[in-house]
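Hey,

Quick one before I head out. I ran the complex with adenosine-5'-diphosphate overnight. Inputs first:
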Amino acid sequence: MYLIKLGGSVITEKSTTATFRSLIMDDLSAQIARSGKDVLLVHGAGSFGHVLAKEYELIHGFSSNKQRYGFAATQAMVQTLNGYVLSSLHNHHLPAVSLPPHAMLRLKNQEIETIAMDFFKEYVKQGFMPVTYGDVVLDEGIGFSICSGDLLMLLLAEAFHPEKVIFVMDEDGVFTRNPKKFADAEFLDYIQKDEIDSLQTSLDEHADVTKGMAGKLQTIKKISSLHTDTILVNGLVSNRLYEVLTDQSSVCTVVKGE
Ligand code: ADP
């Protein structure tokens, strides 16, 4: 079992609202299909989520009546993106089924409170490929909030202990600092859990409302404590995900599980 997250910055155009990168998604679907591996899939919300979520300040919970529209519209937009992702997977004959966070989990003050993990388990048992995604969800402390794809990765890694956890992103992997901002950022092909805190992670221009690379690295730190290796790989370069899935050497960052 491989747990894969397709980053919102890979499958959507982050600078333009609700723009799906269908050619890239099709390429990733083809690589997953060709690998023949059992996969649990998470995808980010990218520009289908972060534009309205920012405008209506959804991450900090309920504060005004007009946010309800923003919440509902965001939920519909990320579900539309999920539909596009599923169609691409189905076009490659993968048995992908959608498990929307807004109907399966609750947060409490932005931390996980409950998740219907039995649905994931049962679909996996029956040979399906569950697909879940960054979404707006109910929050018992602050009314509602955002459940990031990265939080879902941690929850699924804890529940399934996958062979590998893979973050597909729009860069070759982890650098010493943000490669989009600093030309001297150095690529790291291997890092240990304890080195994570020394990395710099400034936010991108069109960063989403979740915590960007800093949050992702903290999630990965927790995943590596489960003795699971995490790999970060570039989804914009064809074949890299396939190489990682089939244990071939590739350009990527490995964070060793301890
Ligand atoms: P995704 O949408 O793929 O889940 P994010 O856009 O939230 O991911 O975060 C990935 C982005 O973080 C990269 O595209 C890169 O621009 C930025 N980033 C910031 N710091 C780093 C770093 N040290 N190494 C790699 N990427 C970084």
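The first helix runs from residue 8 to 11.

Talk tomorrow,
K.
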